[in-house]
Amino acid sequence: MSAPSTAGRPLAGWGRTAPTVALVATVSAADDVVRAVASAPERGILARGLGRSYGDAAQNAGGLVLDMTRLDRIHAIDAEARLVDVDAGVSLDVLMRALLPLRLWVPVLPGTSQVTIGGAVAADVHGKNHHVAGSFGNHVRSLDLATADGAVRTLAPDDPATSALFWATVGGMGLTGIVLRVTLAVQPVETSYFVVDTERAANLDELMERLVEGDHRYPYSVAWFDALTTGHRLGRAVLTRGRSATRDDLEALAPELRRTALALRRPSRGTVPRGMPPRLLNRLTARAFNELWFRVSPAAARRDVQDVTQFFHPLDVVQDWNRLYGPRGLCQYQFAVPDGAEEQFRRCVRVIAESGHVSALNVLKRFGPRNPAPLSFPTAGWTLAVDIPVSAGLDGLLRRLDAMVLDAGGRVYLAKDSRLPATTLAAMYPRLDEFRQCRAEVDPTGRFASDLSRRLAL
Amino acid sequence: MINALGVPQRLLLLGATSDIAQAVARRYAADQPLAVVLAARPGPRRSEAAAALAALGCPVEEVDFEATDTAAHAEVVRTAAAGGDIDVALVAFGVLPDAEEAWNDVGTAVAAAQVNYVGAVSVGVALAAQLRRQGHGVVVALSSVAGERPRRSNFVYGSTKAGFDAFYTGLGEALREHGGRVLVVRPGFVRSKMTTGMEAAPLSVTPEEVAEAVVNGVANGKEQLWVPGPMRAVMSGLRHVPRPVFRRLPI
Ligand SMILES: Cc1cc2nc3c(=O)[nH]c(=O)nc-3n(C[C@H](O)[C@H](O)[C@H](O)COP(=O)(O)OP(=O)(O)OC[C@H]3O[C@@H](n4cnc5c(N)ncnc54)[C@H](O)[C@@H]3O)c2cc1C
Ligand SMILES: NC(=O)c1ccc[n+]([C@@H]2O[C@H](COP(=O)([O-])OP(=O)(O)OC[C@H]3O[C@@H](n4cnc5c(N)ncnc54)[C@H](OP(=O)(O)O)[C@@H]3O)[C@@H](O)[C@H]2O)c1
């Protein structure tokens, strides 16, 4: 373990809002972590992965933060049993590259592959396949957790003695302990490509209808929608839905890719420089962007073959794109509402589009059934995510949305949140007390803490 | 914690009965109730201030605070932080002595220096320790344009604010690497109980206008601001006026 820096380092989330200073130590072995937990300072200790949560989840002001990205061994890949045994600091990107030659695939991929296994467990991340595959926790067979008492416990969802702590750790935002190692079930694939159907929807009603009607035909489904256009074209969208391509698919649709069927290409289009001028992204450029995105998509449905980057991670091509949002950073607002709340969901979309605030990256999708984790975000129904640069008036808009989401029986995603009031969060997650109780048992003195846990009284 | 939009959860007012301090608390509470710690001398003014904020839905704590009792300041800050991190601390206490008395009477001059400068430095050191400990937080220091260039009409008060301003400006630099921030606020003439009975100077503002500027300044990560905004240009101009001319200005 590197000795914790004595000067402290400012840490922020991907949204680059509300940075705070903590001591940071890099750990490279499980023993390092256990030792660090034992000597946790008064302000507590917290694991940090690749810092891709948007808000303050991976910050611990005045305390100790463990950089987990050097705890990064892939211990074993059992292609037969389709199980991998990996350290918590391994990124999904690295894992994906290790698995592909063996015709295996990470079962849940969020919108960036630059997240660690530990971060994926702690936020119980979801991907475009949630409606069929559930979230990350559904695929974890067991995990090792360093707990406040200095022990390392192996937890499994099917072990009655440990399942409660297992599920509290899934979606538990690092507050039950530090995940050291994970056994994950993976999926078989034949190629690294995807057969993707792209189509446009003229407005929100058409979009929602098509998602309800057709999602069961696709393991992967997501829609990008225009969050600026109002009126009868409100919610016009581009749907991209697909499935993993088989070798026969490549044969039929893209024979030139057969020779590289398991390749993983990731072009880099450069980095956004530091100190970008404020608000390069403004209403004008965002409108142009929205218009362009809609226009370049085919008016009639189109089927093609896309690689991982095109289909899953178009944003990973540009490093540090979050700097585009200017010095005050950006706020990501992602919420989910249950089936039956379509009317409220539409109203939320309208309020966002009519607000005058600019969001360029707007994702809408349907979720499948939830898992047993008390703080897991996804629940059957609808989810929507918008990226809004911080500016005056945003607080009012988001509090208005909070009230609408709450009224619809919905909730906001903690991995994206950076501003929710504690009372609203408690109302959105009715099982919060169950989580708190589990935490109180495993960490009675509150050794694990984060800015998020302080802000939301988790 | 201060959230991504600059909204604090817990506010400490030092000199909580100040009209400007009250306006700042009300301005925050208007958006959503927040915990407020009222550090002030006990008395009906503090009780009324506490009741007014409680009526807005804010959890309120009262802590005894005397600016000249510097030995007690560390404890005041510790008590205020016992219930949670101090997200924003407003240094609002101050006295404005009669200007002529102040330079003729030792007691008056020293008392002003002790409250406005010595007390503020002492409180600043105690707040700095707390902000370093928590790794975040903002100190809002109510300085004054009077400290920017001393005037014949008001130089004792002006000198206390000059020292105050230099201290908090420097403190901001020192706290940067520890996660703390300092916002130095330089109002012109504010129509508060401090200035009742005085003739309002040009560009005078209300405590509410100062509060609005403070709340926006905290949210925007500002390190210094003037109220009203144009006062900055005025003061910048005045700094360069030759002394013989400055002397004859009716200010
Ligand atoms: C462009 C982009 C797209 C995204 N798309 C999606 C998406 O589609 N779906 C989705 O679900 N999320 C998405 N996210 C959010 C992201 O997947 C989560 O925030 C994820 O938790 C980030 O992982 P990380 O390794 O960066 O963790 P960090 O951000 O560093 O930490 C997140 C949380 O995990 C905890 N943690 C990290 N490591 C450990 C560990 N070893 N043990 C215990 N706790 C730990 C931290 O304490 C913190 O609470 C996206 C983020 C970005 C930037
Ligand atoms: N008003 C202006 O024109 C103006 C302009 C620029 C800057 N400022 C500065 O802004 C700050 C707030 O002023 P304001 O306009 O709000 O005036 P205010 O209402 O008079 O507030 C000043 C407060 O300071 C407190 N105080 C005085 N001596 C104290 C002591 N020894 N110990 C503890 N508290 C003491 C008083 O509390 P009690 O209730 O206990 O007496 C009073 O409430 C001051 O620092 C002032 O110098 C004011």
TrEMBL record, chain B:
Judging by the UniProt lineage, the source's domain of life is Bacteria
Q: Cross-referenced InterPro entries, in alphabetical order?
A: NAD(P)-bd_dom_sf (IPR036291), SDR_fam (IPR002347)
* Keyword Secreted carried by entry: no
List the keywords (alphabetical).
Answer: Oxidoreductase
GO terms (molecular function) for this protein are: oxidoreductase activity
Q: What Pfam families would the database entry show? A: adh_short
E.C. numbers: 1.1.1.333
Q: Which family does it belong to?
A: Belongs to the short-chain dehydrogenases/reductases (SDR) family.
- What NCBIfam families does UniProt report for this protein, alphabetically? PRK07904.1 (NF005912)
Record PANTHER family: 5-KETO-D-GLUCONATE 5-REDUCTASE (PTHR43669), DECAPRENYLPHOSPHORYL-2-KETO-BETA-D-ERYTHRO-PENTOSE REDUCTASE (PTHR43669:SF6)
Indicate what this protein is called per its UniProt record.
Answer: Heteromeric decaprenylphosphoryl-beta-D-ribose 2'-epimerase subunit DprE2
Q: Which organism is it from?
A: uncultured Nocardioidaceae bacterium
